[in-house]
From TrEMBL:
Membrane topology of this protein: Multi-pass membrane protein
Assigned keywords, A-Z: Membrane, Transmembrane, Transmembrane helix
Organism whose genome encodes this protein: Listeria seeligeri FSL N1-067
Protein name as it appears in the record: YubA
Entry's localization field: Membrane
Pfam families: AI-2E_transport
UniProt family annotation: Belongs to the autoinducer-2 exporter (AI-2E) (TC 2.A.86) family.
Length: 215
């Protein structure tokens, strides 16, 4: 028995090439299995994507705004009131920004609606000119001879476009939902980080085993 273990150790454990090959095969097997059961992790990935954005944004904002809150706190402001003041200033800046952006966008939209009839008249005129040309007659003859093939192609393309559109709409809705959730939850997470962020390292440290804590 001992001799068998020694041979096994010599062949596999002490042989770096064989050991590396075994590790590679195990990793490849893990990757293959994960690709086959990836659907199990889809809900988890959705949750992580939803939660990650607010946490990352709040973390970045915390390191940007925490010095401001500390400075106000040194000026005898209570930390909660300092955070409230910061939020009021940020909201005011956002409103000010939109007060400049929205009128500009509105003017562009109004201008588009005003010029659209002119563009439509030009398109109609060009189409009428084309419909009276000999090229249009030739094209109409070709279309009439290959109408069945054209309709089949259009049907296939239409189905493909519809499926792509549905997929795109679902993706857009999901993205919009994630953005809205990030916009709503980021200020909340940031508030608690600014309020009690300094206690977070101690809180996380308490969650570690005693042996794993730095002395």
């Amino acid at each position: 028995m001992k001799g068998s273990l020694t041979k096994f150790k010599q062949l596999f454990i002490d042989n770096k090439f064989v050991l590396g090959l075994l590790i590679f095969l195990l990793v490849a097997l893990d990757i293959y299995v994960l690709t086959k059961i990836s659907f199990i992790f889809d809900p988890l990935m959705v949750i992580l994507k939803t939660v990650a954005a607010p946490i990352v944004l709040a973390g970045i904002s915390y390191y940007l705004f925490n010095p401001v809150i500390d400075w106000l706190e040194k000026k005898k402001w209570k930390r909660g009131w300092a955070i409230a003041l910061l939020y009021v200033v940020i909201i005011g800046l956002i409103i000010l920004l939109f007060s400049f952006v929205i009128p500009a966008v509105k003017d562009q939209i109004v201008s588009l609606f005003k010029t659209f009839p002119g563009y439509w008249d030009q398109i109609t005129q060009k189409f009428n000119e084309f419909s009276q040309s000999s090229l249009f007659d030739q094209l109409k003859d070709k279309l009439s001879t290959n109408m069945s093939d054209i309709m089949k192609t259009l049907s296939e393309k239409g189905t493909s476009v519809l499926n792509s559109a549905i997929t795109s709409v679902g993706s857009i809705v999901g993205t919009v939902t994630e953005v809205v959730l990030a916009i709503v939850t980021t200020p909340l997470v940031l508030f608690y980080l600014l309020k009690d962020g300094k206690k977070l390292p101690d809180f996380l440290l308490k969650m570690l085993p005693v042996n794993g804590r730095a002395h």
